[in-house]
Amino acid sequence: MPGSAEVEGFELPAWECYGLLATTAVGRLCVIEHGFPIALPISFQLLQDGTTPRIVMRTAAHTMFAQYEGPASFEADEISQETHKAWSVLLRGQLRRIVGAHDLPDPHPWLAHGRFQWLVLDISAVSGRRFASGPNSDGFSVEWTFTA
To answer: What's the pLDDT tens digit per position in 61-73?
Structure first.
């Protein structure tokens, strides 16, 4: 593109991605609904108990998420308008419903009333990036560069 800076990628290691996820409580869960992907915000907690890390969520029984099991993705990020820095973590895996007694931690959903259906995303792939904005020659858009 004319006037744009070259962008180099910097993939974060998995341990740093999980560290970033532990600093936030809301992300977006993406599932397939009527043949199309749809992503909606949801409260979550990262579970790292010696096994493969998992994402734990709670939702209401009548929601789209509560009815779904299968391949899913999850994204959490943080974007600072003040510092012009950001990070983004993307997970992929299998979403499953939890029925019956369990010892999962409570993700404390913002809307807790009626949220009795527990979900777990068993993570099979993780990726993440840090970004910082830089000046753009046209003055109308932001150029993002990957940071270490």
So the answer is: 889 999 999 999 9
